[in-house]
Amino acid sequence: MNMYEIIEEKKLSKNLSKEEIDYFIKGYTNGEIPDYQVSALLMAIYFNGLNTEETYYLTDAMVNSGDRIDLSAIDGIKVDKHSTGGVGDTTTLVVGPLVASCGVPFAKMSGRGLGHTGGTIDKLESIPGMNIDLSIAEFIENANAIKIAICGQTGDITPADKKLYALRDATATVDNVSLISSSILSKKIAVGADALILDVKTGSGAFMKTLEEARELSKMMVDLGHKFNRKTVALITNMDEPLGYAVGNALEVIEAINTLRGEGPRDLIELCLNLSSKLLVLSGKFNSEIEARKLLNENISAGLGLEKFKEFVSMQGGDISYINDLSKFELSSIKREIYSNSEGYVKKIDALEIGEVSKNLGAGRETKDSSIDLGAGILLNKKIDDFVKVGDLLATVYTEKESEIERAKNTILSAYKIGEENKDEYKLVLDEID
């Protein structure tokens, strides 16, 4: 067996065996197979695809390329969630505390933002003192003590995925369903939660631009989850406009806290309740989502979700005075308001353009090594189906980059499509794959 033969087989659309995939992943991870051969194989996979069995073999090989975290010491059914990335996607900071407030352990390792999509770890670091570099022992201890732990991914989990992703990024082979699925699921399987909800975004601000693409990806990931004996469900959700009103790290934390107070945006509350209720059913806590939602709403009204968030922040070294007094969050010093120059109903808000503006204002990264401004971002004032008059406030931007203000203004005005009232109401949850 050699790499040339494996490339040749996939070039001819033949199925790769478990042994061949193990050979390629092990050799590449160890530095024995060069980038140029793996690049050739990735391009062959991109054009000729992998079937479900091959994708399972690839995922398994990547899981076994590094450490596997044993979470069996955490009491109960451990649950986790993953979003494929969007704009204003603050759900983890709401779903985690809500699920934990119901007595179900929420154990999640999260990443940082890249490009126009935000990262949970960056958002948490908006809270002074917040420690996201937990040891595995601390992670397990916290999950047992307060039913929630969120930390950054360790360097020894799925090293093959890290190498492959960097190469895919450089060779235009990122957007392949099997490669995306194996990348996401390998990290989730390696961490070891028992049940997983996948929030698969589709639309202008998502990687999957069409509903058909999102369905294909969702089905592949759910199938993989089941093959690894994980209870797995995917929700396909709309990212044709940003989720909620806040885009940017500190701004999104503030919005998450308000949502836990029961004062958040309607779309963010609805999605968080949807995701949380499904996790509670997957955990075995409830038999129906109706029962689960009842308890979730009760916990929001009683302030239990917010108290759990405070417990979580305190347990990981964060300053909870910021949760009690949101004015303590430091937003960027330059603040500009953007006003509408037309009248009508908001037909669409291009989420990708809003995400790119937020990134350019300092809230996001061009590369994984870029620094970010935790106080930068955009606070939207109008959403799809809202009526707007000339001179109405559309959005407020926060930045330390004076040179970006004019471009931000023009792009935000362009992102808002204003005209006649939409015939159909904006639908947030588009499908469910289980």
Automatic annotation (TrEMBL):
The keyword Glycosyltransferase applies. Homodimer. Catalyzes phosphorolysis of the pyrimidine nucleosides uridine, thymidine and 2'-deoxyuridine with the formation of the corresponding pyrimidine base and ribose-1-phosphate. Pfam families: Glycos_trans_3N, Glycos_transf_3, PYNP_C. InterPro entries: Glycosyl_Trfase_fam3, Glycosyl_Trfase_fam3_N_dom, Glycosyl_Trfase_fam3_N_dom_sf, Nuc_phospho_transferase, PYNP-like_C_sf, PYNP_C, Pyrmidine_PPas_bac/euk, Pyrmidine_PPase_CS. One of its GO terms (biological process) is pyrimidine nucleobase metabolic process. Keywords: Glycosyltransferase, Transferase. Its EC number is 2.4.2.2. PANTHER family: THYMIDINE PHOSPHORYLASE. This is Pyrimidine-nucleoside phosphorylase. It is an enzyme of class 2 (transferase). It catalyses: 2'-deoxyuridine + phosphate = 2-deoxy-alpha-D-ribose 1-phosphate + uracil; uridine + phosphate = alpha-D-ribose 1-phosphate + uracil; thymidine + phosphate = 2-deoxy-alpha-D-ribose 1-phosphate + thymine. GO terms for cellular component: cytosol. It comes from Anaerosphaera aminiphila DSM 21120. Residues 345-419 form the Pyrimidine nucleoside phosphorylase C-terminal domain. GO terms for molecular function: 1,4-alpha-oligoglucan phosphorylase activity; thymidine phosphorylase activity. Belongs to the thymidine/pyrimidine-nucleoside phosphorylase family.
